[in-house]
Amino acid sequence: xxxxxxxxxxxxxxxxxxxxxxxxxHRSATKHIMITDAAGxxxxxxxxxxxxxxLIDKNVPAGKENTLIIPLSKSVSSDxxxxxxxxxxxxxxxxIDSREEGFYLDNPVRTDLDILKKAVCIKENDxxxxxxxxxxxxxxxxxxxxxxxxxxxxxxxxPKDKYDYIAVVDPACGGSDTGYFTEELSEKDINLDVAMxxxxxxxxxxxxxxxxxxxxxxxxxxxPEQRQxxxxxxxxxxxxxxxxxxxxxxxxGITSYYNDRFFIRGFNNADxxxxxxxxxxxxxxxxxxxxxxxxxxxxxIMSCTIPAVRLDMGNLQGSGDKRRLAEDDYKKKMxxxxxxxxxxxxxxxx
Length: 350
Description:
Elements: H1 3-29, E1 30-33, E2 35-37, E3 51-53, E4 56-57, E5 67-71, E6 81-86, E7 91-96, H2 103-106, E8 109-110, E9 116-123, E10 130-136, E11 141-147, E12 151-157, H3 159-162, E13 165-171, H4 187-203, E14 210-214, H5 224-234, E15 238-245, E16 254-258, H6 269-284, E17 288-293, H7 299-302, E18 308-315, H8 321-324, H9 328-349
């Protein structure tokens, strides 16, 4: 190797080192924070009841317009932060395990956003841990990052500005509404188990451009008005209600119910119900109950103006369904079938 070749190699190595260091600095400067979809469920992080309104400074730095900037004490790291997107209530909760009591009495949040209806600091314990509760004027997608300036930056956008397609999945019942139940099975739990399995299934393909909102991800009361509001505010393209039945005169099987009074051109309610039925049958191996028009009293389905289906996943008293509905594997397969149905439905709608 000549001296000239050695010099060229040294220059290339230096350039590579500079680029690598620059990339490392860039990555360390801004760390993405995952926001958990709470859908009504919440973290139980403390028992103190003290709360006060957060100070808000509307003077934001250049380039930080339309951003919520939350200061952090120097002792806080990413491991000390939990964010919950409680979208069913239009709330963003930020739990911060801090060791500096009263930090937010003196350090304001900075933002020029006009979408904040309320901003409250709730004392979680006596060591400085708090919950910052931001109530918004609607449903937003939240994207957050932890900066090297010891701040959390949150940007907001409307769901339709962020995602190509949106579905609302509604595990019926919850909280005080147990739905149908036997000594071994509870409808509200089965519905929730399938929704949680669907959530795990979709987490494997976050790049799909599809967003699924859930009316609940825990055992809690959700009113019909809240469920309908989520459909409207999210701009949902599809809606699926998850239910079970316990009719003694019903046989085993998966049944899809659709709104036959609201006609949608192109990909309509009946098409969607048929697609969901076939996909879930193929994935689960269950018996077919058929595709049927919903009763006029079926308020959630009958009030929808988008392709909507009530997926009845089986009979709690059925000889085969009773066994299947108790199995985690069956509920997982139901979720897989439903996810494939949603993907195919979105393709049909293109």
